[in-house]
Amino acid sequence: MKVTSSRFSHKTAFVVDHCPYMAESSRQMVECDMLTKSRGQGVIPLAPVSKSLWTCAVECSMEYCRILYDVYPTRKLVRSYVHYIVSDSEFHSLNSWRQEDQSTQELMAALASVGPPNPREDPECCSVLHGLVAAVESLCAITQYQHEARRTLMDVADRVANRGRIICLTNAKSDTHVRMLEDCVSETIQEQNKLAAGSDRLMPIQRCELVLVHIYPQGDDTLVSDRSRKELSSVLSSEVHSVRAGRHLASKLNILVQQHFDLASTTITNIPMKEEQHANTSANYDVELLHHRDAHLEFIKSAQPCFLCTGDLHMAGSTSRDSGLKETVTLKWCTPRTNNVELHYCTGAYRISPVDVNSRPSSCLTNFLLNGRSVLLEQPRKSGSKVISHMLSSHGGEIFLHVLNSTRSTLEDPPSISEGCGGRVTDYRITDFGEFMRENRLTPFSEGVLDASGRTSSERAKAQLERHTRYWPMIISQTTIFNMQAVVPLANLIVKESLSEEDVLTCQKTVFNLVDMERKNDPLPISTVGSRGKGPKRDEQYRIMWNELETLVKAHVGSSERHQRVLECISACRSKPPEEEERKKRGRKREDKEDKAEKNGKDADEKAWPDSERLKGPQEREKEEQTESEMIKDSPDSPEPLNKKPRLMSEEIQPPQKSKGPVSLLTMWTNRITATSRKHEVFAGRLNSVNNKAELYQHLKEDNGMDLHENGKATR
Amino acid sequence: MPTVVLMDSSLSMTRPVSQEGSEEFQRKNLAVHGLTMLFEHMATNYKLEFTSLVAFSSLWELMVPFTRDYNTLQEALSNLEDYDKTCLESALHGVSNIVQQEWGSTCPCQVVLVTDGALGIGRGSLRHSLHTLKQRVEDKKFPLPFPFPAKMFIMCIANVEELQSTDAMDNLEQLIGLNGGEGQIFTMEGPLCLKSVQSMFGKLIDQAYTPFYAVLHCGNLASDVQVFPRPEPVLVDEEVDPIPKAVQTEVDEVGAGTTEDAEEEPSANQMAGKSPNFCVLLHGSLKVEGMVALVQLGPEWYGMLYSQADSKKKSNLMMSLFEPGPEPLPWLGKISQLGPISDAAENPYGEDDSKSPFPLQPKNKRSYAQNVTVWIKANGLQTDVQKILRNARKLPEKTQTFYKELNRLRKAALAFGFWELLKGVAELLERECTLLPDSAHPDAAFQLSHAAQQLKLASTGDSQYSAFNHNITPLHTDFSGGGAGDRM
After folding, report:
1. Other CB atoms closer than 10 Å to residue A411's CB: what's the count?
2. What is the residue range of the signal peptide feature (chain A) (predicted)?
3. Taking CB atoms and an 8 Å cutoff, what residues of chain B touch A60?
4. Among residues A577, A469, A482, which one has the least CA distance to residue A526?
């Protein structure tokens, strides 16, 4: 397996030399008294100041950390930690592997308390070695992440790796001195690994990368030679960089942070910006950003020899102005069009860090993005079409470089969902499900919040989804209660995990209200779409409604005793008790006779209706005839009517009942027709019927309803 | 993911297969038979995937560019002509170019190489290519590994014994090795006949072209779904040794969030609703409400569902997979910490949907959002000093800003151990004090000398004055009217 440099990046230990010689001047002068030139005679300008080697080392290492914390506050799963150690006559640890310590502000405060090296301290007592030893020891210490990983992988705890890197900023005497430092690190690792092997709190170091940076003042000759990476042992590799203090050191550490953390550079060019002095003119500026190199995947790959890539792309290899020799990819700013939401296929988003964070162009760009604007970036090409390959945009105070797919997508021309299963159904409860989704939206809760039964927040969210979907008809024609405003208070409450007394009362009120509606014979919103005629009769509608309401409440009856009470209330109040079906079976014979008697007595003509009429809706007509006689009996106070039974029953029972007595030729013919018709109508419709209500003429709806669904213009 | 079928059309493919009694077959006929089977399978189970056909001998030719039309592929296959010798390297270059031109270099692809295992002779043969692997100059590199993620399946119209009698098997294995081990060699078992070629392609189908079926759950609502393209297992390579993660076929919908950040992350898959209702319902509501649904694919692996419309107004349900992990989108926080809004004291979205609990702000601001001090370049330092001087000349009006800038500089100088700068700026302030015009407010002189003195004290390193968190506060004077600058 390829070991990338970032595999060492979980732990980085900075060791900065704090010995007296680091107080020496870098001899890079900074003129900070700039205004005096315009201020006439007699003013003696302040002498330029110079940074010490220490100041140079500290500010460059802080810059390294700044970029690191910007780009990797979380490195996918793993955080990158920095342990900052300074070393003189002893070591001073400025922070720890703890998450809270990982910020530049914390480090700045700790550095201030250490202060610059004391040039009068006895150089014999001081050495960077103390810091290096401490760094090795700290690499053996377990970080928060490693601890958690070991805990979650109990059985395979040894799979948790322990690799790290030590970056040592020092002023070495000679190559021999450097060798001595390396040997010391190597020996310490061996010792520490022995210790760690016998400890639960320490982990042996598997791989360690030592990066020694020798800093010397400007104008001096270096006493230490550069050396590329060399394996010192199976655990330790080491490299030496000899760098002049000041700007050279800064660019060296900038290159190192890129190498160590798989970063790449993008320069945004042609950023239009108002001139400070002349507000009405604007000039174009460039801003260089660092980010994970995967944001350049498309460029890196196409840089391979490939004769189809015509070399038209102007990219890598151009030297960025700021950072010496390193490569940067230039992308052109595209002035954003207002309010034009363009969705692009985004194949990745990477955090950025500006190279020159507090320069005016950088802060203009970052403020623009932090204020919620997005910028599309275009590949500059010498000719041909415009290719937008990236986008800059911020989320929650962090700026991301988004990679946009600029080639053909394998997802092109997808089939419409209406071509799939269920795509032709047109009366989905789109609006209701939208409301359902809004009620089930998620929001962050603080870490470790568990409820009484030990569920995490997301487990509670899933439990809520489960409760809310126990009874949830997906299409409008499958439900009555969810089409009724009057049921809403109960429907909203019953899905709750627990009910208060007040909730129960509200539910009961809802039930009483429904009873009231039934007494007043209020119409119910039973879907009649696609069926000719008036649909089921009023009492039948209420029966369907009560059954459905019971189904809903029964689904939640196990939640609590209060849920149970809501069901009891319904059972007590509804026009038909739930035992109805049972009693029906017992009293079937009796009812059949009653039915027959009624029919024969009331309307002998009925059987003589033309067949065509009969096919349209024999049940409906039959019911209509009965309505009036049943109306009065159906009030809650009156005794249970004997002839009330589901349509299904009457349908099934009719033929045998009729064949009992002597029948006329007409009756026989009619029965035959009914039986035949059932093969078609009843079979197809009943299959999809809900609560015994078959939906007719579905094709009519399909033609009308398709557009509704396709355009998503469901009305609320 | 797209497939390139790379068909060997060299003369050796026309070698007859010895068969008793029945009509005589060429190896090519067997290859075509196997590919027909593959195409038929894809036309039924993989109809949203793209496939192209490349024929090669010493040259290569793109017979059918990437298409979902398997009839065209089939037709081209049956009209294949026979050419000269096998030269795999140039053909692989061809494949590399075709894929990159069409899909770029990030889209994963499958390459199905169909060959009889006679891999050419002399220059251009695979043996020659592999022998000269280490002597290549930069622009004549061997095409493997492909610049895009690719799996290479080698279908040999030959049995193992035949391949092992020459170095063909070794060479093919080396080829897979060059592709980072991504791929597999299939050989025919038993006599070369229609039956054994069917069985070989059957194995390929099982290995690489099984449709991905899953069940989408939302509480008690559920729907069977098929996902295109098939989500592939992901290798999680972190400080812990790599652990492969596979998408679980039971997909759980966790809940819904708003689409304010609707971007397609890593890979997007089309879900074709196989069993009806719930998917269509969900899609319809997501579309109307402009929402996305969070979906759980496995332990600590999440994605999102949303409605996506193309330019033709056709819309369907898309699933985007996030990178596996507990916190795939930093601005949502940890997914396990997302709970139902009904648990919150008040609706975080507001009663009229005017608010949102997202995006979450990171604990520490990024450097570009917090006015950090960087003096690596001289002009960074100069700007900061000038800011102080500019405000110094406008005292007492600018007392607040003056001390704010002064304290910012002080903090940075202390952290960087840059005491010399503190002394320098103190001197500058003292000089400013002497240069004050007669008309200057008397408070200005007091504040300047006070500030200069404080900086000097800080530069001594005396812990009483050089504490990092200490701020220099404006001097209380009779002129400052109750300390206008006290409230820093």
Report:
1. 20
2. none
3. 376
4. A482
Nearest CA-CA distance, residue A376 and chain B, Å: 14
- Mutant choice from A92, A97, A412, A442 vs B, greatest count of B C-beta within 10 A: A442
Contacts 24+ apart (CB under 8 A), A308-312: A308/B97, A308/B100, A308/B101, A309/B100, A312/A381, A312/A382, A312/A383, A312/A384
Residue of B nearest to A473 (CA): B221
% of chain A surpassing 90 pLDDT: 30
Contact B280 A112 (CB under 8 A): no
A421/B275 Cβ within 8 A: yes
Is the reported ipTM for this assembly greater than 0.85? Answer: no
List chain A domain ranges: 8-30+48-261, 265-305+312-404, 429-436+454-644
A34 touches chain B (CB under 8 A): yes
Q: Do A395 and B289 touch (CB under 8 A)?
A: no
| DSSP notation for B29-80 | HHHHHHHHHHHHHHHHH-TTS-EEEEEESSSEEEEEEEES-HHHHHHHHHTP
**DSSP class per residue in A91-126:** EEE---SSGGG-SHHHHHHHHHHH-S--TTS-GGG-
Q: Identify the residue with better confidence: A283 or A667.
A: A283
Under DSSP, the state recorded for A142 is P
**Angle A441-A443-A444 from CA coordinates, rounded to 5°:** 155
Chain A, window 296-315: residues with a beta carbon less than 8 angstroms from a chain B beta carbon: 297-298, 301-302, 304-309
All residues of chain A having their beta carbon less than 8 Å from the beta carbon of residue B285 are 430-431, 433-434, 436-437
**Å between A263 CA and nearest CA of chain B:** 17
A122-136, B234-248, B276-290: range with lowest mean pLDDT: B234-248
The answer to whether B418 contacts A51, with C-beta atoms less than 8 Å apart, is yes
| pLDDT band, very low/low/confident/very high, at A36 (cuts 50, 70, 90) | low
**Interface contact A472-B107, CB threshold 8 A:** no
CATH of the domain spanning A265-305+312-404, picked from 3.40.50, 1.20.1410, 2.40.290, 3.30.2390: 2.40.290
pTM for the whole structure: 0.75
Between A123 and B412, name the one with better pLDDT.
B412
Class of domain A8-30+48-261: alpha beta
A8-30+48-261 and A265-305+312-404 have identical folds:
no
Indicate yes or no: CB of B264 within 8 angstroms of CB of A306.
Answer: no
Average the pLDDT over A154-180 and give the result. 83
Per-residue pLDDT, A685: 58
8 A C-beta contact, residue B263 and residue B296: no
* Beta-carbon separation of B327 and A31 below 8 A: no
CB B339 to CB A443 under 8 A? yes
Give the residue among A198, A57, A210 at the shortest CA–CA distance from A133: A210
Which amino acid, one-letter code, is at A538? R
Give the pLDDT score at A668. Answer: 66
